[in-house]
Amino acid sequence: MWTVGALYENVGFQPTTFVLIVFLLGLYWIRLPKNLPPGPTGWPGVGCSLALRSRAPYLKFTEWSKKYGGVFSVRLGQSLFVVLNDIPCIKEALHKQADDFSDRFQAAVAKDFGIEGSFIFENGDIWKARRRFALGALKRFGMGKKSIEHTINEESRYLLDGFADQEGQPFDPARLVNNASSNIICKVCFGYRFDYSDPKFTELNARAKEQLSSNGPGNVVNMFSWMIRTPFYARVRETNQFLTDFLFGLVQQHRQSYDKNDIRDITDMYFTEADNLTDSGQIGKNAFSDRALGRSILDLFLAGTDTTSNTMSWLLLYMAINRDVQKMVQSEIDDVIGGSRQPSMADSPNMPYTNAAILETQRMRPVAPLAVPHQTKNDTTLGVYKIPKGTRVLVNIWAVHHDPATWTDPEKYNPARFLSADGKSVVQHESFIPFGTGRRVCLGENLAKSELFLLFVNMLQQFNLTVPDGKPIPKQDGSKGLLLSPDPYELCATRRS
Known about the structure:
Blueprint: H1 4-11, H2 15-31, H3 57-68, E1 71-76, E2 79-84, H4 87-96, H5 98-101, E3 103-104, H6 108-113, H7 124-141, H8 146-164, H9 174-190, H10 199-213, H11 234-256, H12 266-276, H13 290-321, H14 323-336, H15 352-364, E4 374-375, E5 380-382, E6 385-387, E7 392-395, H16 397-401, H17 445-462, E8 463-466, E9 492-495
């Protein structure tokens, strides 16, 4: 039987050390807010952060949700998090109590960039003004327009050429897919694309991926924000500066050729918006400065590149693994489009199985399994629980998309779950939220849907995708950053006859 004396002897504690630990634990518990949602027990100073070292946060949170319920609280570092794990809790917070739950937590890595101009991280009236502008700009230059279909199909041809260059040999498709999605957002923002061999473009995409991998809620710098200034995060700061300088440099180049009578892209539209604003006591022209524009474009670039490319990479992987699904998608493509023309968004309503394959991929591997963290604006409640002001709020999309009470065999890839009984139409599920929900739902949702459909159909119209002969089925675990990207894998792409 353990006694205090035995504890000293076996663990090496001195009496004063033991008393200090007991005191700190007591102080820690006394200072916890009362009537929080239930959750795992943490330690002073670090909370439950050590539990995330060996497992992806979204998986650990899903495990905890089975014990503590649809909403639970957890301390990571010195910060209090509330995690929402089912649709009723998510709708209650982000829809019915949107005023309290729609602010954005401003992570240390984001603050290092600077928040001014951010569509993602700003709050209040200035965020609402920027979001209105962004929605209008994307509607004009992207969502639902024939011009964006032309842009995506044009970029698809470059992507298909890159696949053809592999001559059926094993290769990792990630870089080519990332280049394509990056160029589409560049075309929308700046009116031009980069050559895939451009070294600056290559570094831009690599740095963007680095930045997103350092911004997840399980990253230590987002538990202890002061660490961003330490040598451990020098590379992160350097990457932030590179991205800021690169994209602001493009904005400055664009300013030199700007003509208010010839609006070419979102950047020009932003210049016009700034010129039309007056200091009326509301939001002044300086709120839409060129510096703020550079930060806005950075958000569009980061959110519009890796998100789409990661989903496309998962799609290609699942097609190579599930050849029966691939053949059914290709049969639908042949019936509706044939092989003599590229697809159009007008084809989408006639291709339910193709859309179901895309939706099932987004369900299985949501691109942002914990979304982008929110933060409570005021002291509030959620059900019977009290949530203090400044609490960080995570939406566990992974748990919602893998809930066996909603999805039969949730780890099985099955596009049919998104089809009607006769297979002729797509079924919408309330528990399907790959782009988030509420006021902070993804700005570019419709643009992303167009990209995914057109890139995917272009690819399977022209190529058969297979796992290389003699190689094991690639792992399907994915990364542990803010975005869920596949582990590196290889496939073979051969021209369809």
